[in-house]
Amino acid sequence: MTDLNLTLVQMNDLHGYLEQHLEHFRQGNQAVYRPAGGVSRIAALVKQIRSESQGHFLMADSGDTLHGTYPAVKTKGQALVPVLNSLGLSAMTAHWEFAYGPRVFKERAAELNYPMLACNVRDKETGDYFFQPYIIVEVGGLRLGIIGSASNIVDKTMPPSFSEGLSFGIGKEELTELVAKLRDHERVDLVIQLSHLGFPQDLKLLSEVSGIDVCLSGHTHNRLYRPAMVGQTIVIQSGSQGSFLGRLDLTVEDGRISDFRHQLIEVTPSVTPDKEIETMVAETMQPYREYLAEIVGRTATPLDRNTCLESTFDTLLLSAVVESTRAELAFSNGWRFGAPIAPGNITLNQLYNMVPMDPVISMTNLRGSELIEMIEENLERTFAPDPYNQLGGYVKRGTGLEVYFKLENPKGQRIQQIFVGNEEVKPNRVYSTAYITEQGVPRKFGSDHHDTSLHTIEVLKNYLAKHNPVNIELKGSFVVV
Q: Which of 22, 60, 189, 311 has its CA 20 to 30 A from that of 33?
């Protein structure tokens, strides 16, 4: 049989970024910042790759796409739909898209000209799939089965409104059955998993489910310059915020991949934007541009969110929360998304890129024993040896405390000591605590939970007005010992 060639292009974790933005890169032990991304440049690269592949081409989106910037959240994802529909995508799966609630998300998905896939999300009452679990497409003489795996943490760590009426699983049984169906009954040549489970989760799942040829992984923002292999399955993941595309060129012979080449493509300013998409993006952004261009302060240091234990932007965020509430402690979720801010002016747009939901600031009284239990739970959700138990992003962000912990210790036994100020935490003492969303302090911890009248963007703007420029250094809130 003659070899058949196929080019796969992956986009994952766009997080609503329509335009070019600053991105962090590593150079030795230094972080460097340069512009990257922009959907008009992504479109230009996709056109070029499609032409090179002579139509033997498929592009898919691993999710976290319709949420993450002011225009995205303001329109519940609708602002992105026309642009996404112009890219020629074949399928998508999801995570933060559920933030708008299942009903709105279903409406938004219906506006896309390609299907939303999720084999692991079901209606609690009927047991039916919430979205179709797979599609079959024919490309370049090949019959391809694409199975979607949405994020499985939506009903476990995120606000209840995100998952109302739905259940989310890792999808092992569904995936096993669907692979068999696609191979034995649908007679596909290749099976592709389109996943937003996360890189560690995908690797474990693929070690337990055979018959998948390619996994297009998302969620954990890995920049894979080389694919991972689980048996014969090729796994790629391609950064975040549209700063990269993943390209995988396959040679297929008798229903088997005999050769492949992979490239993680940086979406650089040197790429000439696609004019049609550039105009479309400009029109989409026009209603918000003046508002988002407001300069709200200056920073003398880079403000980033690209490190696991602590970050400069979240240190700024929680410093502002403590100053506005006079709480002893403050916590927020360990979000991974958000483009960095270089030294210089800070715009309102950059603040919304970090906290697009503009959540309310809440307060609670937290006992020392609850503080210890809460952080142990968070450390397990971040570093659990079993990837299926890794349910978080980065480590929960905290200020006003220092946590010294053993990363390698088992569940519930990682913390060595916690200090608030210069005093070791006392189990029966109550600490006044501010937090952002239930991911900052889950409701099962603390007493007298109540919302303040303060919202995150307002708190940040007020802090930046008083501290101009800000000079943010990491405080060592979480230290591995």
A: 60
